[in-house]
From TrEMBL:
The active site is at E374. It comes from Croceifilum oryzae. Belongs to the glycosyl hydrolase 1 family. Pfam families: Glyco_hydro_1. This is 6-phospho-beta-glucosidase. GO terms for molecular function: 6-phospho-beta-glucosidase activity.
Length: 477
């Protein structure tokens, strides 16, 4: 039997920039994701290589309308409640609270929206899990200060977080600082509002920005604990164990290095100091991280309470140039083909056992509670004339991953909950597509922004309802 603990937080996860729409409503400012069009310009902007500070005529920006969760949240929350959700992970848009990011006073209309959203969740018996920063740096901060490369953002973020903790201290118990904080190494404009000029040392800027986010995270932990005694505040990692292609010691060591590239962030947030391997990396690459005198003390004193992580797939790496030719880029985290597992329609490795391995790695390393806050399958769904979606492939994917999560719990891993990614179809972060669907709820909208936005329950809707009702005991179709 799958012995999930009593009070396990079953639910789903969405992000403001992928669900809300209403991108300038009620005083909200532009964020980085509002500048990501579909098509060939999307990745160069995400990667920090193409400057864009205003939406361009003729381009389609899917975040501007998304699925209009901003106006339809009551309808959607009612559907989540029908499934029996115990929790919903959402993000707060920084630019909805401080439109420019450095405003003297917060935007009251934005604060009121989240008051209403949280009240609606609680009314339906759903606990809000709040991510403070989820890929939406206010554009003004990028244009004026250079994004997270500038230490000024540490103090602006501190003001933002203190505003949230003060306003919502009676409503939110679980917080997370930065979504997939390691993403700033892979999509730096998306993760940290970084735009690189020709001739700049990209790696130096990324790790300086990382330091600023790590200090900001520590200050958020400090403020949260002081303002909301008893609250839990965690970090969040884009996780997925890296396998060596062979037992060649060089491959094994290289896989360890790739894991450490991500673990670095959580080592600092959870253990409170820069690990030795990071210090060597900085030395080997002639990187100098500028720190304030109090930074090391802050990092050491204010570590996170739990580790949130996303898991979609594992990766495979090698040191053999001939093998590396087989690398596929379906995911932001590229990987060598793994012949032992299947792939999704977008080329992502499907490896449910990897979730158990990753959970064990993280728990062995940090000995802090874990929270699986993203996991899901992006796929093309077909709406039948009867308004049905038979997504057995999604059920099979999620069933296998939940089974492996149960095995991790049996291994002794402390897991707080499971909020699968995209319980309702939302805009894809990587591609901007709508046809790459994750949800239990189908939204009538296509890649071009056409559609009625009508919601339809998929087959997986009823399956997940059964999973929650039985606390993970019944996982078959």
């Amino acid at each position: 039997m799958n012995n999930f603990p009593k009070g396990f937080l079953w639910g789903g996860a969405i992000a403001a920039n992928q669900a809300d729409g209403a991108y300038l409503a009620d005083g909200k400012g532009l964020t980085t994701v509002d500048l990501l069009p579909t098509g060939e310009k999307r990745w160069p902007i995400m990667d920090g290589g193409l400057q864009s500070f205003t939406p361009e005529p003729g381009e389609f920006y899917p975040s501007h309308d998304a699925i209009d969760f901003y106006h339809r949240y009551k309808e959607d929350i009612a559907l989540f409640a029908e499934m029996g959700f115990k929790a919903l992970r959402i993000s707060i848009s920084w630019a909805r609270i401080f439109p420019n990011g450095d405003d003297e006073k917060p935007n009251e209309a934005g604060l009121q929206f989240y008051d209403q959203l949280f009240d609606e969740l609680w009314k339906n018996g759903i606990e809000p899990i709040v991510t403070i920063a989820h890929f939406d740096v206010p554009v003004h901060l990028v244009e004026t200060y250079g994004g997270w490369r500038n230490r000024k953002l540490v103090h602006l973020f501190e003001t933002y977080t203190q505003t949230l903790f003060t306003r919502y201290k009676e409503k939110i118990k679980y917080w997370m600082t930065f979504n997939e904080i390691n993403m700033l190494l892979h999509a730096p404009f998306l993760g940290a509002g970084l735009v690189f000029q020709e001739g700049e040392n990209r790696t130096q800027i990324q790790y300086q920005a990382a330091h600023h986010q790590l200090v900001a995270s520590a200050l958020a932990v400090k403020a949260c604990h002081e303002t909301i005694p008893g609250a839990q505040i965690g970090c969040m990692l884009a996780a997925g164990t890296v396998y060596p292609y062979s037992c060649n010691p060089d491959d094994v060591f290289h896989a360890m290095e790739k894991d450490r590239e991500s673990f670095f962030f959580i080592d600092v947030q959870s253990r409170g100091e820069y690990p030795g391997y990071a210090k060597r990396f900085f030395q080997d690459h002639q990187l100098t991280i500028e720190m304030a005198e109090s930074d090391e003390e802050l990092l050491k004193k204010y570590t996170v309470d739990y580790i949130g992580f996303s898991y979609y797939s594992s990766q495979v790496t090698s040191t053999d140039p001939g093998i590396l030719k087989n690398t596929t880029g379906g995911n932001i985290f590229a990987s060598i083909d793994n012949p032992y597992v299947e792939k999704s329609e977008w080329g992502w490795i499907i490896d449910s056992k990897g979730l158990r391995i990753t959970a064990n790695q993280l728990y062995d390393r940090y000995q802090k509670p874990l929270f699986v806050v993203e996991n899901g399958l992006g796929a093309v769904d077909q709406l039948t004339p009867e308004g049905e979606i038979h997504d057995d492939y999604r059920i099979n994917y999620l069933q296998a991953h939940i089974e492996e999560m149960a095995e991790a719990i049996k291994d002794g891993v402390d897991i707080i909950g499971y909020t699968s990614w995209g319980p309702i179809d939302i805009v894809s972060a990587s591609t901007g597509e709508m046809k790459k669907r994750y949800g239990y709820i189908y939204v009538d909208r296509d890649n071009n922004g056409s559609g009625t936005l009508k919601r339809y329950r998929k087959k997986s809707f009823y399956w997940y309802k059964q999973v929650i009702e039985t606390n993970g005991q019944k996982l078959d179709l």
